[in-house]
Amino acid sequence: MNDGMGRRYYRNVIKVEILSEGRWFGEIKDLGLVAMMASQGSSSAAVTRTVVNEEVTAERMAELLGAQGSSPGFLAARGGDEEESGASPEEGTRS
Fold it and tell me: Is residue 74 assigned to a domain?
């Protein structure tokens, strides 16, 4: 599947394990907080596995981006540049 311009979109869901002395309350909506607490705080975090790795249509990607509060044009504006993320899309993936 591509968007007619040769771009392919993927939905990747990962599971993160957080170890800490105390409980984390509520929903964790900020990955920056998880990273900060793991690198500078009193917690440890690790990606434990890929739960979902699926190709999606451009229309579905727009829906997913909207649900996350991102503009549906987010990826188109970036030109679909996977290298900028720092992770290879094929590295350590499972279906």
Answer: yes
Tell whether 44 is covered by a domain. Answer: yes
* Domain range enclosing 30: 9-83
Residue with tokens 């909207």: 66
11-20 in b/e form (b: 16+ CB < 10 A) is eeeeeeeeee
In a domain, 4, yes or no: no
Q: What is the pLDDT along the chain (95 residues), one digit of tens a residue?
A: 767 778 899 999 999 888 988 887 777 778 888 888 889 988 898 888 889 999 999 899 999 998 888 887 766 665 544 444 445 444 443 33
Tokens of 77: 């504006």
Task: Report the predicted TM-score, pTM, of the whole model to 2 decimal places.
Answer: 0.59
| Domains in the chain, number | 1
